[in-house]
Amino acid sequence: MKRIVIFTALLWYGFAVAAQNREDFRNMEKLNQFVRYLTGTYVDTLDTGEVVEETIREMLSQLDPHSAYVSAEEMKEVKESFNANFEGIGIEFNVLNDSVIVVNTIPGGPSEKVGLLPNDRIVAVNDSSIVGIKQLQVPKILRGPKGTAIDVEVVRHGVPGKLNFRIVRDKIPITTVDAAYKTDDGTAYVKINRFAATTNKELQEAMSKLWPFDALILDLRGNGGGYLEQAVLVSNNFLDKGAIVVSTEGRVMPSEQLRAQNQPTFPKGKLIVLVDEFSASASEIVAGAVQDWDRGLVIGRRTFGKGLVQRQFPLIDGSAVRITVARYHTPSGRVIQRPYEKGNSDRYYADFTSRFTSDSVAALPDSLKYKTLKSRRTVYGGGGITPDIPVKRDTSYYSDYWGKLGRQGIVNEYAIDYIDKNRKRLEAAFPDFAAFNRGFTVDDAMTRGLIELAAKKGVAYDEADWRKSENIIRLQLKALIAQKLWGMSEYYRIINEEADETFRKAREVLKNWEKYDTGISA
Question: Which of 67, 111, 235, 281 is catalytic?
Fold first, then answer.
């Protein structure tokens, strides 16, 4: 007997108060009656907690691709990832060779204040060894209430013995702006990784620091979404007060139009939004609003197409269910959600995967054509946001060997070890990023070291694959070293300028704006 049958009633009965008619109520009572018989008479003991969770997950999977169950443990992680801060010791870390490696210390955070350094290896916490710890276990040990202290034992390259630190936990900010820098005197670039509680504040702070500029590249690639209100606030930086950003429509939930509430911070100037297949939900709201109001150009690849609105309902044990209650529409009326068949998530995600090889607007029917609200340009519905200027995914440098290096974190591990051994020399030779970018090259000795490390990790050298991917591997290694010396902005400065076709296209469009401008306000 499938477990879906056993406790279906528990969820349904919890919503009995929402029954629309007598027949609904009778069905819920029937299921509740069945559960009473089952739990009272079944021959074996039932693990009700496990069965209930599996049942809820299975029920929701029969509805749409985005209604979901979130366990109590998962809810803790979700809340932390979208809140403005958490409480801990303030480090970014990796687990390599069974050791916790400090990748970076958060500026002004507890670890930086006591003198922890990037590439320190934490080997013990509160006199207990953590050698061999798993990645997911580290936050449970290092995080804790503000004001509580932990003792950590550290091994530092070039320093004999072990170093001991007492760290008092504090509030640690979580940032969503990965990178912000000037690509030239007149162009700013900002990359947002998700929409959390502080995203709009971070964006405005980044824009303020980069000001003045007359063009902005807003990178939302890989951004899976987040808080709706933050998507509206981010859009408001570019759209006139009162402009519709997104509207929602559902069976029970009242229709709603969410509008820009304030005067925009960047009302004029060239604006480009970069998107790809992994830009979803809140990212699609921003891109769709910018496109529909002719405020800027969208460049890249068609977005994921996640336009279902979930409302989160708490359950008694700290878990929650996210139930789809409405659909998002762009200002021109386009439905962001791509089509799906109820209960057929395999087909839904197979459609997404197929876009990596083919994603042409030529196949879209005229019924999916819409007009922008000012210049009456043609844009497309049918799910996701179709870019004004598409850029095909560049796979010319991809190889299985490079893929294995990435999946196993070998390039990153080599970069950490290289910094560990060469930090002082690098800091003396390259006092700032500009000097590093001009003068540092990944030489053959470094690539040999990387290949040897990969072999030790079980990734056999493949000469043909190496030749195909050598340039991107060298570039990635240089960018990772820059990141560990300065930060994520420097990582993206290297990758964007040297290997990112979508970014290059954006730069080309900005230089030839009149050629591409068909009514975009700038």
Answer: 281
Q: Which two tokens stand for residue 221?
A: 């690639």
What is the C-alpha separation between 240 and 490, in angstroms, rounded? Answer: 33
281 catalytic residue (yes or no): yes
The pTM of the full predicted model, rounded to 2 decimals, is 0.83
Question: Which residue out of 64, 178, 276, 292 is catalytically annotated?
Answer: 292
469 catalytic? Reply is: no
Under a CB-based contact definition with an 8 Å cutoff, are residues 135 and 98 in contact? no
- Strands 149-155 and 121-125 turn out to be antiparallel
Specify the pLDDT at position 361. 55
* Domains by residue range for the chain, with CATH: 3-62 (no CATH), 85-173 (2.30.42.10), 177-308+325-338+359-393 (3.90.226.10), 400-486 (no CATH)
Positions in the chain whose pLDDT score sits under 50: 1-19
Please tell me the predicted confidence (pLDDT) of residue 119. 76
Residues with Cβ within 8 Å of 487's Cβ and at least 6 positions away in sequence, in order, are 104
Q: What is the model's pLDDT at position 274?
A: 98
DSSP E strands in 157-307: the ranges are 163-168, 170-173, 177-184, 187-192, 215-219, 244-249, 256-259, 270-275, 297-300
| Unique residue bearing structure tokens 């009149």 | 514
CA distance 231 to 385: 15
Residue 64 a catalytic site member: no
State the amino acid at position 232 in one-letter form. Answer: V
pLDDT, tens digit, 9 for 90 and up, residues 229-238: 999 999 999 9
Residue in 191, 306, 478, 484 annotated catalytic: 306
Burial degree of 492 (CB within 10 A; 0-12, 13-18, 19+): buried
User: Residue 175: exposed, middle, or buried by beta-carbon count in 10 A (0-12, 13-18, 19+)?
Assistant: middle
| Alpha-helical regions (H) of 247-380 | 282-292, 345-354
